[in-house]
Amino acid sequence: MTSLGMIEAAAGRLEGHARRTPMLNSPFLDEIAGRRVLVKPECLQHTGSFKFRGGWSAVSALEPQVRARGVIAFSSGNHAQGVAMAARQHRIGAVIVMPSDAPATKIANTRALGAEVVLYDRATQDRDAIGADLAGKRGLSLIRPFDEPQVIAGQGTVGLEIAQQAAAHGVSEADVLIPCGGGGLSSGIALALEGRAPGLRARTVEPAGFDDVARSLASGRIERNNRLSGSICDAIVTPEPGRITFPILQRLCGPGLAVSDDDALHAMALGFSRLRIVAEPGGAVALAAALLHGSELRGDAVIAVVSGGNVDAALFCTALERFAP
Amino acid sequence: MTSLGMIEAAAGRLEGHARRTPMLNSPFLDEIAGRRVLVKPECLQHTGSFKFRGGWSAVSALEPQVRARGVIAFSSGNHAQGVAMAARQHRIGAVIVMPSDAPATKIANTRALGAEVVLYDRATQDRDAIGADLAGKRGLSLIRPFDEPQVIAGQGTVGLEIAQQAAAHGVSEADVLIPCGGGGLSSGIALALEGRAPGLRARTVEPAGFDDVARSLASGRIERNNRLSGSICDAIVTPEPGRITFPILQRLCGPGLAVSDDDALHAMALGFSRLRIVAEPGGAVALAAALLHGSELRGDAVIAVVSGGNVDAALFCTALERFAP
C-alpha cells in the first residue's frame, strides 16, 4: 500500500532524473475561470507525460538482480514511453507489448526509446498470455500502469511538488483537478496532499460518457464504462477504477467531474494561447474543468494538472481552429 | 553599463515574480542534432516571452517616487506585454504606444494586462514625438526594449539560470544560441555566462536576410538591415544592433548565425512534438540553428533559448502541417 513515506522515497529516487515541472498561471485564465488558476504542466515531463515518474519509480524500486533481467509493460501510449525511457536510463531491457494496429508513430517512438516492441493481433491473440509467456521465460518484471504501489508512489511526486508550489503561490485551500484513467496519478497526488497540504482537495476529471471513477465515487462501489471507444481523450479511458487506486480515491477525493470532448479541445486551445504548452485531449480535461465548470468547484483558487502532451498535429490544429482566440 | 553584479541584483528583484523556466531536452532532438541539445523555454515565462524579465527589472529599479508616476514603452509585441504586466504588478500605470494597424489581439491583450494603449498612425504621426510629449506631461519613465542597462540586466537572469542548469546537466562547454533582435537578451546572457560559466559561449541567431548583428560582428561595425519586413520572425527584426548591446556582443559572442523561415517553422514543429512547447517563429530560430545547422557549431552539446511563444494559431498550424512528424 502506497504511503507518504513511499512517495517521498520515490521523490528521492527521481531526483535529478524526472523534471520538476513549473507551476504556470495567466491573468487571462483567471478571468475566464473567475478565480485564480494554477496549472501543473506534466506535458513538460520526460516523454511528454507524468508516466515517466511512475515508470522510473517502479524500475528503480526493483532489486538490482531482478531489475537486471528487464521489465515488461502493456501499453500503446504514454505508459509505454515512460517505462521505455526509465528502463533505458537504468541500462536494462524493456519489452513493450502493443497492439499491431497502434499508430505507427507510437510504435516508432517506443522503439526509438530503446524498447523491444512485441506486437499482437487484438482479434486473435491474448495479450496477457503473450506477456506472461515472455515474462516467465526471460524473468521480466511487469510494470502495471496504475494498480502498482510503486507506480502510484512515483505519480504522487507530482502531489509533493504541487503542495510546495501552491504554498509558494500563497494557495493553501483549493480543489486540485486531475485527469483520471485508472487512478494512478489521482491516488498518488491525493496521498501526497493528505500528508503535505491538507487544505488541497484532489478531484478526478474524466471524459463525459467515460466517467467510471465519478460514478464509482458516487455509488461507493466500482462501476464500469459501457464502452471504451468514442472519446478523443483515449489516453484516460479505462474500463473501471483500479482495485488498489479506488479505495484511496474513495477515502480522499471530492466528487468526480466530467467534461465534454469540446471542453477538452477548448482547454487545449487556451493552453496554447495563454500558457504556450501543448496538451493532449485527455491531458486537458482537468484544465477544462477548472476553466469551464467553475460552478462545480469551491474556493478562490483552483489547481489543474495537465497530465500529457502527446497529440497528433492534426487534432491539435482542430482544437486551435475551433477555439483559439 | 550592465555588470554581472547588476544581473545578480536583477535576479534578486525578480525572485518570486519571474518564473525560473526549466531546462528541457529530448533524445529525439539529440539524434537530429548529432549532439546533446538543452533547451531553455522562455516561452513559458509570464506574458510568453523573456521580455517580462527586462520589464520587471527596469520597473523595479526605478526610484519609488519616479516609478509611482508610471512608465511608457513603444512596442506592438512582446515588450509591450512584458512592461504592461510588470507595471501592473507594481501597481503603477503603463502607457504603451502602438501603431494603429497592430493586430487587434495584441492591442486587446496589452489593454487586458492593464496598460493604457495609445495608438498612432504610422503614415502621418511621429511615434517618438507622441511618446516624448506624454512622458514629459505626465512624468513617465521610458522603458526601452533593449538599449537600457537595467533591461539588459533583467534579460541576463536567463543566463544565470542557464549557467546553473547546464552545470546540473553536466554541460560545461557548449555554444549557447540566442534569438537576437536588438541584442538585449543576447548581451545579458553573454555577460552572465562570462561571469558564471566561461565555457559556455553566447552566439546570436537571426532570420536570414535580416542578419544585421551577424554582419556587424563580422565587420566590426554596426551594419543595418536593408529592409524590415518580409520575415515571419517579425519579433526579432530590428534595424540594427543596439548602441549599448553591440559592444557587449562584440566582446563576448562567437560568430552570428542565420536561419531561414522554413528552418524556424521546422523547429516550431519539433518543439511541439518533442518538447510540447509553443514557440513563435522568431523565438524558434536558435532551436532551428541547434537542430539544423550543426556544422556551424562546435562541441558535444548545444544550448538553445526559445525566447517567446506568442504566435497566431494559423501560423502555428502551418508549421505543424509542413514539418510535424
Short description:
Two copies of one chain form a homodimer. Chain A is α/β, with parallel strands linked by helices. Chain A is 46% helix and 14% strand.
Can you tell me about this structure?
The structure is a homodimer of 325-residue chains. In chain A, the strands form two sheets. In chain A, strands 1-9-6-7-8 form a five-stranded parallel β-sheet, sandwiched between helices. Chain A has a four-stranded parallel β-sheet with strand order 4-3-2-5, sandwiched between helices. In chain A, strand 3 (94-99), helix 6 and strand 4 form a beta-alpha-beta unit. In chain A, helix 1 packs across helix 8 (149-168). Chain A folds into two domains: 4-50 and 148-323, Rossmann fold; 70-139, Rossmann fold, CATH 3.40.50. Chain A is α/β, with parallel strands linked by helices and 325 residues long. Chain A contains 14 helices and nine strands. The model of chain A has no long low-confidence stretch (mean pLDDT 96).
